[in-house]
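Q: How do we represent a protein-ligand complex in a form that can be generated token by token?
A: Start from the inputs.
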Amino acid sequence: MPTTHPNNLSTPPPLPPGALRVTPLGGLGEIGRNMTVFEQDGKLLVVDCGVLFPEDHQPGIDVILPDFTSLLDRLDQVEAIVLTHGHEDHIGGVPYLLKERPDIPLIGSQLTLAFIEAKLKEHRIRPVTVQVAAGDIHHAGPFGLEFAAVNHSIPDGLAVAIRTAAGLVLNTGDFKMDQFPLDERITDLRAFARFGEEGVDLFLVDSTNAEVPGFTTSERDLAPAIDQVFATAPRRIIVSSFASHVHRIQQILDAAHKHGRKVAFVGRSMVRNMGIARDLGYLSIPQGLVVDFKKLGSMPDQKVTLVCTGSQGEPLAALSRMANGDHQIRVSEGDTVLLASSLIPGNESAIYGIINKLTDLGAKVVHKGNAKVHVSGHASAGELVYCYNIIKPRNVLPIHGESKHLHANAALAISTGVDPERVIVAKDGMTIDLIDGRARISGKVQAGLVYVDGKTVGRATDDTLQERQLMREGGVVTVLALVDPATNTLAEPLEFLSRGFVHDDHTFDGVAVEVDRALKKASAQHIDGNQLEATIGGAVSRYIQRTHRSAPVVIAIVVDA
Ligand SMILES: [Zn+2]
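Then emit the structure tokens for the protein with zinc ion bound:
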């Protein structure tokens, strides 16, 4: 199985006429920021454009985008952006790409387009949209698109088949094969089989659950555990879920209705998305069941259900603020909190922290660790093997996953008889060319992590994050030095200011000697002001590290005496 290391790759050669180039710009090597670019005869098609959520070692970052650099001087060649479904890791990057060229058509299903349009409204962008449904055929330049229904943890997901001069490509998007989904819209294996008969030259497959053996449990199987919560909760029930998991929330609404409770949606994204889902008929709400949050105060606790976001431990989401006593909803003795969601890898400690705090407040917390209140939205190994056997693809490119997920998915493809030489485990930025029915890695383009920090995009770098990490670990020491420019010697004793750095009265006692020595050495080399600051900062930093066994960020400010 070809697994070329990115260091051994360079810019790909020009693409021959009729060949297809596939460039994943995100989602290969991480769970999130899914984006793949297809190129043929100078025309481009983008499939998905999502965000990645930051981890603990990326403090202060809001979201992480795919790197659009390789597209920026070719934006006029982009025929369309196909959105497979409405999750943030597939649509969250669209506003940032449309800022570069607002009239790129967005192709997607009804609910997917409704979610992205609501998001774009907040960015003051009115997109050009093309609504499609399962079974539809649509042409975008040289790309012939055909859509097939897939079942996932959000309604209205689509796989997309792309007919090109180089062959037929099938991209599953995120999918699973729940045979009894709440909306009875199953993954269209008949369409997959038809594509297989036609001959799938390149199969791009969701790898998220490739390591999980067997089959993903049906969404319907959660009903008893959810019902149990509603049957036994003595006071309020507070449910936290993704703001897009329409079917899970439908199950909550049904249980609340059955047990005579009212429901209020809490949080902007939850209220917005559930409004959209209800208006478009994806969510069925019995008359009078959902009430405004403000009206709940006058109701007895055992009649109340609150549905909010924050199931991933995001610091600003409603549940996290409730756990910290920083929300208008005060969690108290006898409340039941239901976490109807998965734990995204990397978020575990934040979520366990929230569970502990909620427990300390007297709540009973029901989560996937102690009750069957969550199933995954992704196909497990058994389902993936099924797909390979139905489709019999000629070449396979596992997508959506960290390296271990991609490799596990590749192994599944090989186990069904796909030629190992044609199963390609790639990384973000690698280009895969489909020529004469054979897919091969041909080079790489820029595909770094692009950080959104407040209003800035791409300004925070890995160096910024490293500095933040250092400050987080050791604090900051600022040293003010009054230096005589004629002699490059200290004119006054050094002054120290610190934040987050633990010290005592004698911590800086010997540092002046060290700084003097560094200044003497420097003055022989005729250095400028910036170098002087670096010299003093370096001397202080070395001294603190040696005597104090600690490494704060040291900032030196030099003032001429
Ligand atoms: Zn998804």
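Residues 85, 87, 90, 152, 174, 377 surround zinc ion (CB under 6 Å). The CA atoms of residues 21 and 433 lie 4 Å apart.
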